[in-house]
Model the fold of this input.
Amino acid sequence: MLGKVKRKAASKALGISEKEIAQMEILQKELAAMQFRHEDKNIVVKVTGDMKIAYLEIDGEPKSELVKVINKAFEKSQKEIQKKMMGQMGGMGGLLGKLQ
Done:
């Protein structure tokens, strides 16, 4: 979550109130806590609302190492996307990334 100073800067950059920023932070936290499960044949996967794999099972065997590797790849791609956004949008892209 953003601190008061960063929330104020984000509010100004995005043209929305600090209250709306705080509400977005609460919503992001709630979404991250959600889990979605899908099964197909011999594969079970659970994904969180913040797009992280929480659990993966193939042929009845949990694949925790695979989950770690996939989530690290997602993190890496998100960081690169944020860098690209910052380049295209100036400082505002960085503020958007911090809201995640």
Remarks:
- The chain has one domain: 4-98.
